[in-house]
Automatic annotation (TrEMBL):
Classification via Pfam families: Glyoxalase (PF00903)
Gene Ontology BP term (one): L-methylmalonyl-CoA metabolic process
Gene Ontology molecular function terms on file: lyase activity; metal ion binding; methylmalonyl-CoA epimerase activity
Protein name: Lactoylglutathione lyase
Transmembrane segments: none
Keywords: Lyase, Metal-binding
UniProt cross-references to InterPro entries, sorted A to Z: Glyas_Bleomycin-R_OHBP_Dase, Glyas_Fos-R_dOase_dom, MMCE/EMCE_epimerase, VOC_core
Keyword Lyase: yes
Classification via Gene3D superfamilies: 2,3-Dihydroxybiphenyl 1,2-Dioxygenase, domain 1 (3.10.180.10)
Highest taxon above the source species: Bacteria
Domain VOC: 2-124
Length: 127
């Protein structure tokens, strides 16, 4: 049986910069690259479609609104040691929207890609 992917589309400002960022910092592998319009990367069953303004997803809506990067929707990557992961990513100059938040289910932090799209890093509470 073929592996099923969960697909997430992010609008990005620079497709090649985004490919480099996801593969270097978060362990994604490149599937295809048609920069500057589109590329897709994968990590396990997660496939992220990186769409630039030249992609079909970047075309204006009927009312003229243009899809843009950013916002608050996100996917979550589970990590074993959030403190170590954040330290490593900060040392690489990556941008976070907040500090680590700890709650009853674990700890989380919001990381931004180069276009301002959010990735949540989450460490589940150890029982």
């Amino acid at each position: 049986m073929e592996t099923q992917h969960v697909n997430v589309r992010y609008m990005v400002s620079d497709v090649q910069q985004s490919v480099d960022w996801y593969t270097k910092h978060l362990g994604f592998s490149l599937l295809s690259n048609a920069a500057p319009a589109f590329a897709d990367v994968e990590r396990g069953a997660l496939r992220v479609l990186l769409s630039g303004e030249k992609s079909s997803a970047g075309r204006p809506m009927p009312d003229g609104a243009r899809p843009t990067p950013g916002g608050w929707n996100r996917f979550e990557l589970v990590v074993e040691d959030i403190d170590a992961e954040v330290e490593k990513l900060r040392a690489s100059g990556l941008k976070f929207r907040n500090d680590i938040v700890r709650g009853p289910g674990g700890a989380q932090i919001l990381l931004e890609d180069p276009s301002g799209n959010v990735i949540e890093l989450f460490e589940p509470k150890k029982h």
